[in-house]
Amino acid sequence: MVSKRDLTRYGGAVGGVALAVMARIALSPVLGDAYPLMTLFFAVVATAVLAGFGPTLVAIVLGLIAADYLFLPPFNAFGLVRPQDAIGLGVFVALGLMTATLSRRAAQSRHLAGEVAERRQAEAQLQENRERLQAALTASGTGTFRWDIRTNTLDWDESLDRLFGLPPGRTARSLDQFVSLVYPDDRAEVVRRCERCAAEGADFAMDFRVIWPDGSLHWLADRGQTHLAPDGRPLYMTGACVDITDRKHMEEALREEDRRKDNFIATLAHELRNPLAPVRNAVQVLNMTGDDQTSRKAREILERQVGQMTRLVDDLLDVSRIRQGKISMRRERVGLRSVIQMAVETCRPQIEGAGHELKIELPPDDLELEGDPARLAQVLSNLLSNAAKYMDHGGSIRLSVTEEGGQAVIRVEDRGVGIPADLLERVFDPFVQVDRSLHRSQGGLGIGLALVRSLVAMQGGTVEACSEGPGQGSAFVVRLPLASPVPAVAAVTATPLG
User: Most buried one in 228, 331, 414, 444, CB count within 10 A?
Assistant: First the structure.
């Protein structure tokens, strides 16, 4: 298919010859028979400069035809009668071809010069990009490498030398040399992963330690991508390493801080619990000795506060045990009604003291679970306590039970402060509280819901929080699997909180 550009070029050649013919005819009264090819040669030169080699050949042929027929005797007929006319046409053709050839070479030279300029510009841009990349790698402490899997040769940059603590000229050139720089405890895993990359074409991703010549230990994060041949065979790997020693030190410091925090919580809980037993005993003694109204009221206050403090201490102990994986539960077949009764008895003083109304909706038939009755009751009592705590005086709490898909679904709903949308997921994290204002402070530490989530998970269930937002109340939905036909007894070990 002829392009529009070609049509323009060849059309321009034809038009140029036509204009040259008309110009020569116009000049005939002045020139007579002299210079019959003058204007036609100008047309050939213009075509060579403007349109290129092919259109110039067309202009030469059309010029020959026009000159022979119109400007050379016998006029208005083809044929040459004078030898000098044949020589003139030959010179016209030779000069035309020479002009076309020179024009083509000039165009080729311009094109080549343009390509050379573009290539130099591209090379300069590439060099600038390399310098920027190297500056970025140096600033970020990143080194790059290339591993030819077929020849087992390594090529890496100076930044990687620094990451391995190597002086210039000591670059590792093979996989074995690279492995020798790795910390002995990590070498076997590094070799195993490299062999897998070479055999299966897998990518490499591992954090490992290296030993510098001065004996210091450093952590590197190594990531490599394996490139495959068309037949699927691994060819080579390109990748990068970055020093993560500081990050590893910070992670270890955080883990150590976490261990210290757990130890502190456990120690604090034990230290707080020690004086509670004699205080409770003293309350019981007072109950047996005094009976006047003032003493009875004081004893009720003292007993209620001791009970609240006991629950806080027990929660602290459970948090510590669960985070350290030291808590276990005994599974047994248990009716959900008895579990709810235990939970309600535990929370009734708190609910009644706040003037709340508790509504319980149970199915006609009792649902049986396989779990630890005490821990299941602890889950529900924590949810009931949470509902009573975050609701104004005289509120309403609803506890309902349904059966759905082989699970017992327990809902604890309140019309309290509600939960913001951004806290619905984090409300089960340790030490997270929805409302920390002083007028709602009920002695909570923000660990009750964290215990709920962990204890429910240990029972094979799930728990979720629902709320329309602040001031709209909240609902906590616990789903627990129903008991299987055959009772089972097994020990379950806790998974850490958070």
Answer: 414
CATH superfamily, domain at 141-243: PAS domain (3.30.450.20)
Q: What is the rounded CA–CA span in Å between residue 284 and residue 289?
A: 9
Bridge partners (DSSP) listed for residue 329:
492
Q: What is the pTM of this model?
A: 0.45
Q: What is the pLDDT along the chain (498 residues), one digit of tens a residue?
A: 678 888 888 898 899 989 989 998 888 888 877 888 888 888 899 998 888 888 889 989 998 898 888 888 888 888 877 888 888 888 988 988 898 888 888 888 888 888 888 888 888 888 877 777 766 666 667 888 999 999 999 988 888 888 888 887 677 788 888 999 999 999 999 999 999 999 999 999 999 999 898 889 999 999 999 999 999 999 999 999 999 999 999 998 888 877 777 766 666 666 666 666 666 676 676 666 656 666 666 666 666 666 656 666 676 666 666 666 667 777 889 999 999 999 999 888 889 888 999 999 999 999 999 998 888 998 999 999 889 988 888 999 999 999 999 999 999 999 999 999 888 888 888 777 665 443 344 545 567 888 899 899 989 999 999 999 898 999 999 999 999 865 545 545 554 554
141-243 against 249-322: fold identical: no
Domain range list for the chain? 4-112, 141-243, 249-322, 327-493
- Domain made up of 327-493: CATH architecture: 2-Layer Sandwich (3.30)
Closest CA to 49 of 8, 101, 6: 101
Per residue, what are the HEC states of the chain?
CCCHHHHHHHHHHHHHHHHHHHHHHHHHHHHCCCCCCHHHHHHHHHHHHHCCHHHHHHHHHHHHHHHHHHHCCCCCCCCCCCHHHHHHHHHHHHHHHHHHHHHHHHHHHHHHHHHHHHHHHHHHHHHHHHHHHHHHHHHHCEEEEEEECCCCEEEECHHHHHHCCCCCCCCCCEHHHHHHCECHHHHHHHHHHHHHHHHHCCCEEEEEEEECCCCCEEEEEEEEEEEECCCCCEEEEEEEEEECHHHHHHHHHHHHHHHHHHHHHHHHHHHHHCCHHHHHHHHHHHHHHCCCHHHHHHHHHHHHHHHHHHHHHHHHHHHHHHHCCCCEEECEEEEHHHHHHHHHHHHHHHHHHCCCEEEEECCCCCCEEEECHHHHHHHHHHHHHHHHHCCCCCCEEEEEEEEECCEEEEEEEECCCCCCHHHCCHHHCCCCCCCCCHHHCCCCCCCHHHHHHHHHHHCCCEEEEECCCCCCCEEEEEEEEECCCCCCCCEEECCCCC
